[in-house]
């Protein structure tokens, strides 16, 4: 095995990219290919009302505007954190249903003849939002009476994490017991 730390690593992909010969997904053009653009929520927390897309659909070249109801039984987006049974109830659908929980949550999808047309059509979609109180502090999100983001579990705590002592506490403990520092702590905290 060759050592890479502290040395330049020859890169094979740079030359074509620097010479303008790189190929990206956006460069792929196939006959009959369509493009999509996503309409995203402008609200951090809101009930989702009507999505009026007639003006976007009337634009020549717009093929479809899809909302959550158009997806049928499409599953939710899987979490890539490993097996965590506690968070299954809060998996996110591809497009918001009934409620948005963060700015930028996908609300609708426009399919059109070109990327630019799909993006222009987003501006013609009118969405009714009923704004709800937003949660801006994770510590306050668990307070009694805090606005609930995840109705399926009746709260905002989706999972819990193990709380390890701080580096300072590890350093004090190590000095008292004359043990080495715990992994992930810094000897710089030693006095």
What does the model show?
The protein is an alpha+beta fold. It has a domain at 32-134: Alpha-Beta Complex (Aldehyde Oxidoreductase, domain 3), CATH 3.90.1170. Helices cover 15% and strands 17% of the residues. The chain contains four helices and six strands, in the order H-E-E-H-E-E-E-H-E-H. A three-stranded antiparallel β-sheet has the order 1-5-3, covered by helices on one side. Strands 4-2-6 form a three-stranded antiparallel β-sheet, with no helix packed on it. The model is unreliable at 185-191 (pLDDT under 50).
Q: Main β-sheet: number of strands, strand sense, barrel status?
A: 3 strands, antiparallel
CATH topology of the domain at 32-134: Aldehyde Oxidoreductase, domain 3
CATH class of the domain at 32-134 reads Alpha Beta
Instruction: Kindly report the average pLDDT value.
Output: 83
Roughly how much helix do the residues carry, as a percent range?
10-25%
Q: Tally the helices.
A: 4
Tally of strands: 6
What is the structure about, briefly put?
The protein has helices at residues 14-18, 54-57, 115-122, 167-177, and strands at 35-40, 46-52, 62-66, 99-100, 106-112, 126-131. The relative contact order is 0.17. Helix content is 15%, strand content 17%.
